[in-house]
Amino acid sequence: MARLMLILINELSGDTLYVNVEPLLSNAEFDR
What we know:
mainly alpha; 88% helix; 2 helices; single chain
C-alpha cells in the first residue's frame, strides 16, 4: 500500500513532494 501511495503522490504532486515524503514512509513502513 505504501508503494502505491508513493506512486500516486509522485503523479499528482511531482518529485518535490515525493522526495519530502519518501524518507518518512521509508522509516515508518519499509523498516519493518
